[in-house]
Specification:
mainly alpha; flat; 4 helices; 0% strand
Length: 99
């Protein structure tokens, strides 16, 4: 079971990187690039599809555990950020959050 969780976690991270490449290239086209992606956005799109195919073929039990661990991680992240966020401290002093 542990190896399946490692697999789905790695695939999820790869999925996020593949999507991030396309999003970054669209939203920040003039940003300096350390590497090039051949045939972009075709290669990232194909990697998203291949990764999704591999993830879909994992067992349901793996998806249940993955969802549970993601929920726990999100709760820890939100609880930690709520106490230690500089924006929260500024709001507590009566300031306003500005973008």
């Amino acid at each position: 079971m542990l190896e399946q969780l490692v697999v789905i976690g790695t695939l999820f991270a790869f999925l996020m990187v593949s999507v991030g490449v396309v999003v970054a290239r669209r939203t920040m086209p003039s940003a300096p690039r350390e590497f090039t992606v051949p045939l972009s956005p075709l290669i990232p799109a194909l990697s998203v599809l291949a990764t999704l195919w591999l993830m879909i073929n994992l067992r349901v039990q793996t998806w249940v555990w993955f969802t549970a661990w993601m929920a726990v991680g999100l709760l820890v992240y939100l609880a930690y950020g709520r106490r230690r966020s500089p924006f929260a401290a500024d709001l507590a002093r009566g300031g306003r959050h500005r973008r």
